[in-house]
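Aim 2 progress update. The chain analyzed this quarter is reproduced below.
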Amino acid sequence: MKTSWLKLASIASLAFATLAACSSGESPTTEQEQQPGEAQPGEAQPGEATEESSSSDVRLGTAEQAAMVCSNLDGTNSAMAALAVAVAQDLGRLQAGKDFKVRLGGWQSESQAGNNAETIVLTSGSDASGPLGKSRCSDGKCARVQAILDMQYEQATNKVYFQGSGNTKVLLNPSALRSRMVSKLREQKDFDARAKDNDPTQAPKEEHKLTFVSAAKGGCDTMFTFQAVKTTGAALQYPAQLKWKLAFADINNPYINFQNLGGGKIAFDPTWGLNEDGTSSGGTCAAACTKVSLANIANQCCTCGGVNKTFVKSAWSATTFLCQ
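Predicted C-alpha cells:
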C-alpha cells in the first residue's frame, strides 16, 4: 500500500503541475526543476516478458501519459529523452551502465578540470561484449550523444530552449540536467546489477543491438522506432524488458513513453525537433528551438516559440544549432 500511495501521489503531483502550466500558458523561460517519481521495480504490469505481454506495457504507458501530459518544466524531460534516442542512434544499443560513467570534474564544459562537479561522460575501450562508449562510434566521439551531454554544462546556461506545444518554449536548466543525469545513470547501474531474463520488472540479461527504422508523429513530438535483435541477429526473447534499459533517461519521464510494438520493434518519443529524424523539412521552417544535426543547418529557417528565425551554430558544439 505504501508503494502504491507514493506512486499515486507522484502522478497526482505531476498532473497538477501540468494543469498549472497549461492554465498559466507555460512561461517561455520556465526554470523550475521537475523531478518525476522514482521508478520502483515492482511497478511494471504482471505477466510474461514476451511480445504478447507488450499490450499491458502500452496501456500502462498510455495511462501515465494521460496523467503527466508531456510536462517539461525545466527542459530536463526533453533532454533526457533526446539522450536516449541519440544513444540508440549512435551506440546501437541501450547499455548506459557500460557506455557512460560519472565524472568528477568541471561544470563549465567537459574539457574543464575539476571543481567537484559530477557529470556523466562516455566511456571507451572494450569489455567481453565488445566496444564501449566512444569506441562504438565510427567518428570516435558519438557526435549526437556528445551534443546532448554538452548541454549539462554551464556553457549552455540561458542559451538552450526547447519548443513546447503551440507557441511556448522552455529554457533548459543545465544544473538540473547534470544532477538528474548522474542520478539516473546510477539508477541504471542498479537495474543492470539485478538484471534477469523473463522478469517484467527487471532489465534483461540478453544482449541486444538496435537499428533505426523510422520516425513519425508521437505523443509528445516524434516517436522514434528501432529494430531490436540479439547481437547475433536472432530475435530477442524479452524485448518488453528493454524498458528497464532506459532507466538512465528516467523510466517515468513522459517523453520516453516506451512501447514494445511487436515484431522486434520498440519505440520511444523524445522532444520537439531536437533529434535528427531522417526527414527533410521540404523548404518549410523546422519547429525547433534547438536541433542536433550532423549536417550544417546554419542559416536554415526555423520556428521557435511561434517566431520564424534561422539556425545558428552554437559556440560550444559543431552539431548543436540554436534557432535565433
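The radius of gyration is 19 Å. DSSP finds six helices and 15 strands in the chain. These observations will guide the mutagenesis experiments scheduled for the next reporting period.
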